[in-house]
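Troubleshooting: if your tokenizer reports a length mismatch, compare your output against this known-good record of 607 residues.
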Amino acid sequence: MTVDRRIADITDRIRERSAPTREAYLARIRQKGADGPKRARLSCGNLAHGFAACGPTDKERLTENRAANLGIITAYNDMLSAHQPYETYPEVIRQVAREMGATAQVAGGVPAMCDGVTQGQTGMEMSLFSRDVIAMAAAVGLSHDMFDAAVYLGICDKIVPGLAIAALAFGHLPAIFVPAGPMTSGLPNDEKSRIRQLYAEGKVGRDKLLEAESKSYHGPGTCTFYGTANSNQMLMEIMGLHTPGSSFVNPGTPLRDALTREATKRALAITALGNEYTPAGLVVDERAVVNGVVGLHATGGSTNHTMHLVAIAAAAGIKLTWQDISDLSDITPLLARVYPNGLADVNHFAAAGGMGFLIRELLDHGMLHEDVRTAWGTGLRAYAVEARLAADGLSVAREPASAESGDPKVLTTADKPFSHNGGLRILKGNMGEAVIKVSAVKPEKRVVEAPARVFQDQDAVKAAFDAGELTGDFIAVVRFQGPQANGMPELHKLTPLLGVLLDRGQKVALVTDGRMSGASGKVPAAIHVTPEAKAGGPIAKLRDGDMLRVDGEAGVLEILVPEAELAARELASPDLSANEFGLGRELFAPFRALAGTASTGASVFFG
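Known-good structure output:
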């Protein structure tokens, strides 16, 4: 089926807007692809350093330069549940490569920090910038120019976007992203949320809270709610950088192992040494980017990707805007209900039909570009499948996605969507621009007009809550939380507090130049306000009692103060020195100084 005219029109305008930068990018990767890896032309000393630790067979193959060499970039660490499974992957990849007459080397490791560990803590102020650090760390590993393709082992919030930026910086190299999968289902996410709210109200103690959290986050794999980590996996699959059907298979299973072996074989098949050369820079084009945005909306994915997708696109010379994202949301049906947009977790989503069902539905209704180039070597229709373990117990078999959802309450058809739009919108007004995710917000809660309560950080909000000061209807304004101020931490700590007030019958909303993450929930939240307070945005002029309007239906964010009065006010300028030191924050001062706006990806590369 041909793509819907509205999708095509948005793609065309992105392509037209991006033409100069995209052409310059393609020229660079074509030149580099023509040059090939330099190991064949390295001096003997250089090459000897490059394979000194290899065994005799690998050394021989690298010396002859006829066999492909895979560069593995890994985000393994064993503190974080999502990345712990990667410990054994490099040896699996090396073994498969040897069986195929090739070689594989770990080119480098990248950091992987967890927003779940750092929520509400000092380390969260480095979280967003870790994406750009990851991109640079991967570039360092690949800069040895010893490789014919790259295999990327990463799964969580900033890790995959950082790796994707690196993969596109090395866009002449084929790239395969290898997921590790979600942990098995534990305590239901809505029950975890209920216990959090009871703790916020002082109705249960820390022991009960820790018990609930431990039952929810209980084993290897990603968290099971549909936050940024699982949105990442959806994106890599729908953009053609995974092998089909690999996103949501649990760690430590025979199918997971078979998919890793298969990904290695595919990476070897698409190098320039064979007949299926597929550089990453040609996989990620304007159509793939639009497919990614549509997938984000159709699944109710993470608000963080309003920044990450913009930055990933920019790495490929493509200029994606918030308006493009908003316009695509308006026409994309919501087909999945996964927490926080529903009660199910990602394992339930996968069991209901998962990515294969979703992609098939969107393709059949013209909502995706089918004629894309993928790492699998085919158009996107090849991803409308379900992966299973083959009869030999070692390889992967695929069959067409089921015609019917395994659970229509979790995954539905495009004919009967949960909503006719993706629920992610851009707000505009005299405060600037912001992002709001309304797919988990009840329709009657999406418009709030109320006086402002202005805070400089989320701890001040909690103090006011604990003191019983947050009474009546109000809009909490938490400012100086943007990239330039303190690295733009997630303010997820506010969710239980504001949720309690909402449940008490108060009209409550949040306005912030910080983030709320893929876990944005039932409280209407205007996030990523641009320009941020540190950059002199109007949010820095707000005072307690100013009337504000957050309208998630009409897309409005307004300060209801006379224009002349607002213009005459001075900008707030709090002391931010406490954000500049401790836990390594002093090392990130150049990032804060160079960071672009949230609307341009909040990056030090593409501001």
